[in-house]
Amino acid sequence: MSMLEMYDIVEELGVSDMPRNRHMHVFLEEEVVALKPPVETTRNESNQHVRTDTDIRTESDEHVTTDTDVRTELEDDSEDSDYVVVDSTDSDSGFEESDNDKTDEERFADDVNVGINHEVDINNLNNDLLGGLPAITLDDENVGFDDLHSASDSDSDSELTKIRKCLRAKNLALEMVLGSHKEQYSMIYDYLGEIRKTNPGSTTILMLDDRVFLRMYICLQACKDGYKAGCRPVLSIDGCHLKGYYGGTFLAAVAVDANDSIYPIAYAVVEAENQSSWSWFLSLLGTDLEIGSMDNITILSDKQKGLIEAISEVFICAEHRTCVRHLYSNFKNKEHFKGKNLKDALRKAARATYVKEFEDAMAELKALSVPAFDWLKGKDPAQWSKSHFSPRSKCDMLLSNLSECFNKMILEARDKPILTLMEMVRTKIMQKIAMKKEETEKWTGILCPKIQQKVELAIQQCTRCWPTHAGGHKYQVSAGPLNQHTVDLEHHTCSCRKWDITGIPCIHVVSVMILRNERLESYVHACYKTTTQQQIYNHFIEPVRGPNQWLHDTTCESVIEPKLRRPPGRPKKKRVKEADEAKNPGAKWTKKGMVMYCSKCKKPGHNQRTCKGEIGANRLIRQPRVASSRSPLRTPKLQVRRATDNMTTTSSSPTVCATTSSSPSPAVCATTSSSPTGCATASP
Q: pTM, whole model, 2 decimals?
């Protein structure tokens, strides 16, 4: 029924002073009750007064101020009368109340339940005001300090319970999105079967210990073919810790493409990083890449646990290079050889390309610190100095940045369940190969972009070299009084060994190319050509279907999750950084720990704005010079010449003379130029 129809009914009843507001249905109820004949009841006299909803709300608002008043009111009313709630929606008038017609105070009053026990309501209200403390009923007349103390303890317990509930909810949500850490171990056979089906020729190895997961190794066929197509015989090997529930270690082998970028080869999950796991991983890697124990290959790594022993066991003739950054970390932290001079001497020895340069750098280090020289001399220079590197790998890398870049690429996957981790890594490698292929097709030069930049830099630096033809294909190149080298174009060698190690012409070779007027691209090794890069990325990784389409392997029993190896305490998500390493590389540097000096008094501890000056000293603080409107702030310095007695002026043009004499007598100035000149004399 609409409001207009309601007003018509009211006018027919002859009621003219009816309030036109939201309480209209209450007013009609009272009128209808007044017109009805009286009904005999057995209730007491107090029950004859039927209270409306509005009266009860008003009384509730008046007595809700204090607990004592409410308790007293409830006790008095419980003896004599019963409260009756009038439901506005079931009224005889048939009109419904709208929330839009209510004020804020009335909406708050509606929240008070009148038809239930008031004592429970007040206790709940107290709980809300006390921030979730346990209910203290109003019947307890003696509420002491111990009760409040126990209430505060339960408050912390309730907060802890809320945090635990949130963590459980978070874990449930992550399981729904990423999968269960435990259940995914039972699906490993299905996943490996799908890998072999979609990417034929791929190697998938699973190692168990009585059905308990131990190790898993994957090497995709596209990665094998890409490595054999044109990658240099260089492998960077490293391991990183997994941050998932069951932990473990992630091992990876990364190669170098023609543009000096990373090219992932194989990866594995093992129980820990030791000699056994490294030997197992390297032996499988050598089989997939067809690398024999006697083949010449270069392996870059840091000194991981058991890695050096495993390399010498699996690849006997391999050239093992250690990361110079990790070498310097041990040099500084373990042996306590600190200081910029020692650091620069170590780097100079590592970057030396021929033996004499290396010996000179070691002599400088010995002059700085004999113990540091003795410690570094005990290390094999073939592992950390370019002067002893073999030229067969065409690589002069000193750092394990290849593996560090790959670890950063898979960083977000290291805390995921086992199959989610492996699938995320495979997807990233697949995406990277496809992206590199599209990028390579846009190159128009003969050399890869990074290699072209190195050649252009050598062209700019070769201006200080003077080549001299010695006959045939040999040249002598002088780069200074004590710096002279020989170049052999037929054998692609230079006495500085940079061309030998990298395969990219050095500044001495570039100067000879300019003298012969020949193109440099023909003297760059074929492993840096654009065609080689295209051959590497011609092999793609095939996509894999989702778990709901995997074929279930019924021939093997399901894998059991590994034993939980979690140290006490909260699991760490970030690695421990060194003392001198930036805590947040992206943040701005702060002045914490720096000593500030005042630009006025040159004393530490304050700046120019808070400088108090020197008390009791004769030195005056320099005031800023204010330039006048007539003369400039700085006058140009004039050339000062001494005047002689025998000088005569033979210039036919006027001259300008400025004197700075302190005596009133004019200074003598004579010029012999035929053009206007400026002269200034300073007589004593």
A: 0.64
